[in-house]
Every structure is written in structure tokens, then in C-alpha cells.
Amino acid sequence: MKDVVVLSGGVGGARFTRALRDAAAGQGMRIRVIVNTADDMWMAGLRICPDLDSVTYTLAGVNDEQRGWGRIGETERVSAELHAWGIGWPWFTLGDLDLGMHIARTSLLRDGVPLSEAVARLTSRWDLGAELMPMTDDEVETHVVTGEGTMHFQEWWTRHRAKLPALGFDIRGAAEAVPAPGVVEAVLEADAVLFAPSNPVVSIGPILSVPGIREALASTSAPVVGVSPIIGGSVVRGMADACLTAVGTATDAAAVARRYGARSDGGVLDGWLVDLVDAHEVGELATRGITARAVPLWMTEAEAAQRLARDALALAGSL
Amino acid sequence: MKDVVVLSGGVGGARFTRALRDAAAGQGMRIRVIVNTADDMWMAGLRICPDLDSVTYTLAGVNDEQRGWGRIGETERVSAELHAWGIGWPWFTLGDLDLGMHIARTSLLRDGVPLSEAVARLTSRWDLGAELMPMTDDEVETHVVTGEGTMHFQEWWTRHRAKLPALGFDIRGAAEAVPAPGVVEAVLEADAVLFAPSNPVVSIGPILSVPGIREALASTSAPVVGVSPIIGGSVVRGMADACLTAVGTATDAAAVARRYGARSDGGVLDGWLVDLVDAHEVGELATRGITARAVPLWMTEAEAAQRLARDALALAGSL
């Protein structure tokens, strides 16, 4: 495998991508990561791109591993100022180091630089060992329909901790969005395409909803292999269950695979990794045209995560 | 004196205004400060308003008195990030606390809030004891013509320390600018108008260049009294001498007063405070219609600064 493309959301996808990079170290593998941007938002006049930043910080080794998000050694002096004025969302704190990224990115965007170019420029500061691509240069923002009104995904996710029952997701701007430069080419050129164990509804889902990306996945000669974000009927991290429930999909590894669908049947998956505890689902998925394999999915340590990445590559190689 | 208006630049004007407020404490005096905005700039996508911030921080008591600018207890974590990416001007460092102001202001401006309203909202966080008004809500930016090209005032002032000989100043946007709401009214209603000992060319000059403000000064019934920023042929602070030289005015208290001109002769001044060392200039200025008085001008301590403010009010009261 010389050319691998990963579809990724935030923290989970970041960890999987880091593991892939480290597992393939020295093998000359080109890794391109198509990152969800539908969590992005304008706040306090700044463009915030949570998933791009999570992947960047994690690959750069400057992420806060314990907290799970943001930069290590972070402080919140600027945020305290903004809160004193009531500027921005009081429940969404921006770290000082993180603000450097937001200000730099916003500055470039305001100058007319496309997001993909801004990402290339800002990530060039570190040797990430992977190329990050936003799914699109256009503004796409997921809004969540709830009984208390429709709100930006971040408000639902961060402020309400996804506890307000979601009635649906409106991925605004997706239908008119164009894949960022290189995204479709990356999928078509790849030796393998991997779906990180990211949220199927609000992370991988928006990527697939950008016209052209699903079509590229359908027509690429590369095998497409996903890693289940669900283990034994529970989410590995985050609140994907609340998202799945809203779209009528069970919180279950096989159910998520069925939601993606087999490429042979108009879907986007060839292979699917489930955890050992979900091994009983492998047979049923085979009847639906998805080659599943049961392996340990918990990325508890670097070694386990890298083994998972190797398992994903192995499954892709076998297809 | 129940209603006093001050025309102010940055640090010197801020100190004078603070002294005026403190000298008049308990007297029910309304103080409105018309602040120069021609030093303002866009940097890293943020709108920076150095003079407004200097006056705000000084009146709020959160300024760094020793360093002479910015916030006390300042850090530069965000700036270090921006510098790592080459975003912004490397010779212009933004403090973290200061960035809170820039982000908050820019956020409001991007939302369409006029600068004057943003200033009112942001300064309401503290009990300043004075109302700050930008000279205009329009973008005015001083550019400096030098032998090495024309550059933004901040580049000439901060990067080159005003050492590149200036051939002239282009106060861009001034001719089309409109005084901010309340500015003309404040001048017309005032019992006294005071020029802080700010730079006559690039601080007070731009305020006077906004159409309508000079006319208001000409027609107000209030006496207009200035404080010389020059003592014994030297600048009190900053590099006003480089600015005066560029416009053909000697670095001399009386020369600056002549530059402003007597109101009785189409200028903007009735009275002028010079330092004791410049007492010999009082007579000559009288022949030109400007009532000068020699008093100690050095604002070395709070007490001296407040005495100067009282001297300015006393001179105004005598006119």
C-alpha cells in the first residue's frame, strides 16, 4: 500500500490516522486525510475548524492527550477576556494556543485564501507525515433539529452534550459544496480508502454528502474499508449514539455498516472492522456484500492503535 | 466646568485624560474624549485601534504603566503562534489580553456594529469616568511617505522607530470620513475643549482632518486650550519631532501652537500651555492671538499630572 486515503472526523479519526502513520513508518506510504468540516463555525469573528485542528494537533504531537482535545499546555487568558465582554459562546472556550490557529486561519480566509490552501500552509509548520484536506473549501455547517429549535451542531454537542433529543441533521451547504482540490483525485488514485472510527452521522456523513465524493468512492479501484466506531452496542467515544438514534440507525457495529452499505449494492464500503465482541455480526454482513473482520478495536495504547491500522490495511489488501 | 471634551492620541493623551478625571473627581464633570483612529490597522484579520485601547486601559487602570503601552500582566502566547506561521507583522506583537480586545472589537465590526458602538460596549466593562468616542466610524489610516516608499504609519513608527525620514503623511480616508455620532455635538456643547499633549501631526492632526470637526471647533462657544507636547525643544515622549520635521514645523512649543493657529485667525486654539522652560514664548504667542501660560508640563507623577489638568481647566476658564 503506497497510497492510502483516510476519511476522518475529529479525535477518533486523528488517533487512527496517527496510528496508521506510525504503523507505516519507513514504508514510503503517502497518507492523505479527507477531514470533515461540517462542525466548523464562526465564533467571535473567527473560523473554528474543530476536526481539522484535532487531526493537525494529534499528528503534530502537540495535542492534549489526557483532555482529549486541544493543545497541550493550553491556557485560556484570551477567552477570559472575551467572556468578560460576552463575546462568543460562554460554553465554548478557546484556548490561547488554539486561538493562534483560529486567528491565523481566519486571517488567510479573510484574505481570500481557500481553506484547503490555508490548511496546507498552516500544517506545513510541522512534519505531520500526512496531508490534510478539508472535504470542501465551501462553508458547510451541520445544524441539529430538536424539539427546542434548530441549532448549530456545536451548540447541541458541546453545550447540550447531545442530550436534547435530535430529530434530524441539516448539513447546510453540503448539497452546493464542491470537494476541495485533490479530494476526488485522492480517492480515485488511492490503493486503499479507510474510514476512521469517526461518527458516521456527523463526521463521515457530511464528507459523503459533498457531491462528487460518494461518486468517487463508488468508482475508485481502491478497496474501501471502515472501522466501526461502535463496540458491543456502545460508542467508543463521543455521543454518536444520540446521532444514530436520530437517523434511525441502531447503535450497533453492523447497523452502521449497513447504513454505509456495500459498494456492490450502491453503498460505499467493501470491508468493515468490528471488535471481537461483535464477531457474531461478521456472517450477516457477508450476506450483504460487506467483508467484515473481527479484531480488537480499542485504541487504548499506541501499540493497539497501530495494530488496528495494520488490520485495516490487511483487510483492504485482501479485497 | 461641567462638560469637558478632550482630543486625544494614545499614551500621552490617556495619561492627561486620567489626570483630568482624577483632578475633577466628585465635581460631576462629564468628560468626553475624542480619540484618534488614524493609527488603526488591520493585522492578522483583526482591527487594531492602538489609541482607543491606550486610553481605555489607562482609564480602566489595567494598563502597563512601566512599559508605557498595553495591558498589565500581559503575556504573548498567541502572538508566538502567529509568528511561527508568519501571520501578521513580526515586529508588532499582540499581547494575549490585548488580543481579547481586538477579537471582541473585530467580531462586533464584522457583525456590522459601528466602531463607536463597539467602543461604547467594550468600554462599559469598566467604570472609566469618561466617555470615549472614536473620531469617526470610518476607516482612516495614516500612511507615511518615505524615500523607501509609502507605508502604514505603524510600520514607520513601530518597525522603523520613525528613523526613516518622512517626506509627508497621507491620512487616507480622512477627507471622506464622517465624525462619529456625538463628536460634533460634544464639541458644540462643551464648556471647554482641551487638546491633550498628543502628537500634533499624527494624533490630533487626523482628528482635525475629519470634515466637520475643525468646523465645530471653530464655532463652539467653548474655549479651546491645548497642552504642548514639546518641552524646551524636545518631545515629551514618542517621536513627534520626526513628524513635525516632515511637515516643516520646528520641534518647539510655540511653533506647534502656531501650526494649530488662533481661533481668532482661522485656527483652532484659544489657549496654550507651555512648560516653564518655554515661558519666553508666551509673549510672542499673545501677539498671534493665542493666550499662552507657562506651567510645569511634566506628568511625572499623578499629582503633577492632575495639577496640569487643573491648569488647563483654569486657562480655559479664564478665556
Automatic annotation (TrEMBL), chains A, B:
The keyword Magnesium applies. This is 2-phospho-L-lactate transferase. It is an enzyme of class 2 (transferase). InterPro entries: CofD, CofD-like_dom_sf, FbiA/CofD. GO terms for molecular function: LPPG:FO 2-phospho-L-lactate transferase activity; magnesium ion binding. It comes from the Bacteria. It comes from Demequina capsici. PANTHER family: 2-PHOSPHO-L-LACTATE TRANSFERASE. The gene is cofD. Its EC number is 2.7.8.28. Pfam families: CofD. NCBIfam families: F420_cofD. Keywords: Magnesium, Transferase.
